[in-house]
């Protein structure tokens, strides 16, 4: 896997976005995918994705995400970065989800009233981690 030099792109019916190698904040607005408009802000400190003006994904520090797919009851993606990252997703408010990282269940997590769910993902340079979040 590698960073997304164009910041965001469609690949095999999924989104790929983020570039944790950038030293300064870089953004791209108005990327169209499946009828929605996306905005990406990314660099080594943070990666943030919005869809139609609403929060979707954020990681601190910055990451690169491949094969990002979000449907009604789940989100899945592959993430890479230089160090462990806190990932925050916007999901359905007040719901419980099960998190699976690299094929291992890490437990259930409940979203807050705003629908945000946060989890820590262990990352090492040159390696990627698969993440799947499914509504219970």
CATH class reads Mainly Beta
Give unreliable regions as ranges.
none
Q: What would you say the CATH architecture is?
A: Sandwich
Backbone CA Rg? 14 Å
| Secondary structure tally: strands | 13
Oligomeric state of this protein: single chain
Tally of helical runs? 0
Q: Assign the CATH topology.
A: Immunoglobulin-like
The general outline is globular
Portion of residues in helices? under 10%
Question: What is the number of domains?
Answer: 1
Defining key terms:
136 residues, mainly beta, Immunoglobulin-like, globular
Your description of this structure?
This protein has 136 residues and is mostly beta strands. The chain has strands spanning 8-11, 14-17, 26-33, 36-43, 46-51, 54-60, 64-71, 74-80, 85-90, 96-101, 104-110, 116-121, 128-135. It is 0% helix and 62% strand. The N and C termini lie far apart (31 Å). It has no helices and 13 strands. A seven-stranded antiparallel sheet has the order 1-2-7-8-13-10-11, with no helix packed on it. The mean pLDDT is 95. It has a single domain, classed as Sandwich (Immunoglobulin-like), CATH 2.60.40. Strand 7 (64-71) and strand 8 (74-80) form a beta hairpin.
Give a brief rundown of this model.
The protein contains no helices and 13 strands.
Protein topology:
Blueprint (H helix, E strand, L loop, with lengths): L7 E4 L2 E4 L8 E8 L2 E8 L2 E6 L2 E7 L3 E8 L2 E7 L4 E6 L5 E6 L2 E7 L5 E6 L6 E8 L1
Antiparallel strand pairs: 1-2, 2-7, 3-4, 4-5, 5-6, 6-9, 7-8, 8-13, 9-12, 10-11, 10-13
């Amino acid at each position: 896997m590698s960073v997304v030099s164009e910041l965001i792109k469609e690949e095999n019916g999924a989104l790929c976005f983020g570039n944790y190698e950038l030293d300064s904040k870089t953004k791209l607005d108005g990327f169209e995918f499946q009828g929605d408009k996306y905005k990406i802000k990314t660099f080594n400190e943070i990666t943030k994705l919005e869809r139609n003006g609403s929060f979707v994904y954020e990681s601190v520090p910055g990451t690169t995400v491949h094969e990002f797919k979000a449907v009604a009851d789940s989100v899945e993606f592959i993430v890479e970065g230089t160090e462990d990252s806190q990932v925050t997703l916007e999901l359905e408010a007040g719901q419980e989800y099960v998190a699976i990282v690299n094929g291992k269940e890490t437990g259930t997590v409940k979203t807050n009233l705003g629908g945000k769910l946060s989890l820590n993902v262990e990352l090492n340079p040159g390696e990627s981690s698969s993440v799947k979040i499914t509504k219970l």
